[in-house]
Amino acid sequence: MRQTSRVYLHGYSDASERAMGACLYIRAIGGCGNTSSHLLCAKSKTVPIGNGRTTLPRLELCAAVTLSRLIANVMKANPIYFHEVRAFSDSTVALAWIHGGASRWKTFVANRVAEITTILPAINWHHVDRHSNPADVISRGALPEQLINNSLWWHGPGWIKSLNTDEVTLTCALDATQQRQVEREQRSTAVACLVVYENQFIDDMLARYYPNLQLLLRITARMLRFSHREQRVSNRLMPQEIENAMEVYIRHVQNQHYQQEINRLERKGEVNRSSSLRQLKPYLDERHLLRVGGRLQLSELSYNTKHPILLPRHSILTALILHHEHHEQLHCDPQSLLSAVRRRFWIVGGTSAARKTCRSCVECMRARPTQLHQLMGQIPVDRLAPNPPFSITGINYAKPVNIINRRTRGATSSKGYKALFVCFCTRAVHLEAVSDLSTSAFIAHSPVLAADTDCRAEFTRTTLSTFGEQPESSVNYTNTSTKSNGTIK
Ligand SMILES: [Zn+2]
Questions:
Q1: Does the predicted model carry a pTM greater than 0.90?
Q2: Burial degree of 352 (CB within 10 A; 0-12, 13-18, 19+)
Q3: 205 in a domain, yes or no?
Q4: Residues whose beta carbons lie less than 5 angstroms from ion ligand 1
Q5: CATH number of the domain that 161 lies in?
Q6: Residue 354 CA to ligand 1 centre (angstroms)
Q7: Tell me: the pLDDT tens digits for 452-466?
Q8: Cα-based distances in Å from 360 to 326, 332, 334, 340
């Protein structure tokens, strides 16, 4: 050892269905270039019985674990400095697992690969041909007389003496079957993709300043002023600058949601037949904003009202605009909100968007009065007793209408009324025209009193002044033509 210049440690592992093991060889290169290799130590194990899930590549991996532990023990116990430590296995599948890294594989393989690579890095693991693997003697077994003259066992493979390990890398490609065996142990992983597109900044701005639209537009206008390096006229922002900032966001949202329609409009001047915007006759204005064509071109309304800017229902900008307008209109109801917004924007599906905005407003929710539900009293007996129609009748007069007695010069007008008769029992309604407010006119037009029946009618008076009577008084009368009696209570 004192005459050697370099000392190497080579280990071999192998496994069969019955046994597995590892052996270590110490390889020394002398000062004059002569090489020698001798068996240093070996370890063997029998394969556990009854575990049906253990495959041969897994046993090969277990043999590699045995080899790595043997190397660790030798290096710990032996004071010799090894210039290089290399490990060999004839299993390409086990080597693929070792070179693949522990995190890729399922638990069984991952734990063993992690232990192996902790002791000896994966780059130091190589493939060796099955016939040149001395550990094959351990896995197959050999009689003593076979072992005595076995040069492979005592000195390692023949090429080890001439091997220039600095230049040669021993690898072996996987065939299809081995590739499947390798992938069988691969851990299934969930892949999360983060899609980042170029206009992420605009979306971030919209989300960051929600729901303060004014602040968003002012900050954007400042940024635009800075980016364009415009000559500063005043420190205050001009309305046109705010408008330009708004157009940046409108254009961005329209490109996000209506890209196909915009492309089609640029190419052919009209949207596709299947487009949901077709009924709105959209077009691109000179500032490349998508607007509603509509049918109001001949009206005298403002340009923005005749051709509002199209916005989708589901966008942060739409929510910002609705929220801003809801506060501008002093927390108006959804219908008023939509009407106000439509002076400039046309939100597709705007009704539900406006309703959602009002519903989510905290101030509106706090101010919303709770409805009182009073307990109702007993239903009057007049409405429960089975009687002929209009036996118990409610009466009211509608507001007067002017009646002209003739269409010639000197015609005079008088007030006529519509009498409303409601049957208390059946809820039937009868309308009658009454010439004046007199009792006789009322009796003449009453359907019950004028009927040729012998029933008795009771009237519940709702407007006392209609009949010119006192509240407590009652009127009894007799219809001479029909002999029916009536009572006004
Ligand atoms: Zn509100």
A1: no
A2: exposed
A3: yes
A4: 331, 361, 363-364
A5: 3.30.420.10
A6: 11
A7: 555 555 555 554 455
A8: 11, 13, 11, 18
